[in-house]
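Quick one, probably user error.
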């Protein structure tokens, strides 16, 4: 039980999610309601809710006290306490907390499978440095150069997940509009980005597919999204949506199922990987 719960191969954020699920399960086994536990611990029910859904990092002492209240046996209790300690560690992205305010990058770092649909721009994991810099400047026209460079550096650091021994399987579906917008970017940035996409798509763990504009209406028109899967089956998939007003994590079974359905439908509209490379090459020749 200890080894299953506490693994050094997982990021602090994933360990926090795993701990939260284990605490919910332990409380359910005890038969205690959230209100009863909060009263016994002299906490607010909102604090317990945050711990049970990974919104707050649990201290090892809180986990110890909860385990004792729930009657969790010693081997499992020890594993949960260790998991609490590990969940409070800092990942590489902590130095970019001002840039990555959500837990997305932490979860992305621990993923084994990433499925991304983009309708307007090249996803961050495949961006060239110049393209990323141009995007940051476009999104933040009044920001000082130092901030733009810091954001660009953070974007490049994310791509380090492809350099590890067992990189994630990354499948990206792009609207044709992304390709056309790249061609419109000046100073050679757009064509260089498209060449980088072709090169990336030839890596064994990266699949790139294009949805042509002439397919008409499709579910991706509702907006970009990412589905993240993890190597351990007990860590359930999540979907992620980002917009001007912030980001949303979808973790419910029904919610994630909806995004999987949209993904499957998009896959039916998209060109094959080989056809997509030829599509980009043809676009480059016309530019």
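Nope, works fine. Designed sequence:
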């Amino acid at each position: 039980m200890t080894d299953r719960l506490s693994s050094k191969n997982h990021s602090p954020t994933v360990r926090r999610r795993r701990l939260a699920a284990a605490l919910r399960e332990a409380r359910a086994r005890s038969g205690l309601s959230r209100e009863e536990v909060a009263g016994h611990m002299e906490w607010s029910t909102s604090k317990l809710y945050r711990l049970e859904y990974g919104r707050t990092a649990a201290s090892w002492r809180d986990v110890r006290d909860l385990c004792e209240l729930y009657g969790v046996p010693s081997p499992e209790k020890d594993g949960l306490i260790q998991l609490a300690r590990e969940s409070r560690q800092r990942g590489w992205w902590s130095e970019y907390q001002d840039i990555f305010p959500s837990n997305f990058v932490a979860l992305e770092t621990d993923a084994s499978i990433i499925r991304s649909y983009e309708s307007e721009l090249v996803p961050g994991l495949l961006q060239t440095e110049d393209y990323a810099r141009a995007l940051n400047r476009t999104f933040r026209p009044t920001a000082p150069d130092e901030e733009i460079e810091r954001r660009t550096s953070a974007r490049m650091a994310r791509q380090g997940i492809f350099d590890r021994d067992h990189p994630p399987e990354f499948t990206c579906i792009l609207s044709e509009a992304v390709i056309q917008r790249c061609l419109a970017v000046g100073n050679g940035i757009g064509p260089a980005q498209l060449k980088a996409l072709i090169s990336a798509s030839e890596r064994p763990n990266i699949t790139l597919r294009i949805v042509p504009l002439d397919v008409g209406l499709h579910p991706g028109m509702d907006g970009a999204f990412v589905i993240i899967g993890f190597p351990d089956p007990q860590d359930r998939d999540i979907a992620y949506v980002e917009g001007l007003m912030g980001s949303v994590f979808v973790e419910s079974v029904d919610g994630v199922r909806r995004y999987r359905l949209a993904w499957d439908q998009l896959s039916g509209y998209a060109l094959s990987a080989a056809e997509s490379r030829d599509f980009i090459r043809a676009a480059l020749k016309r530019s």
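Confidence is low (pLDDT under 50) at residues 1-9.
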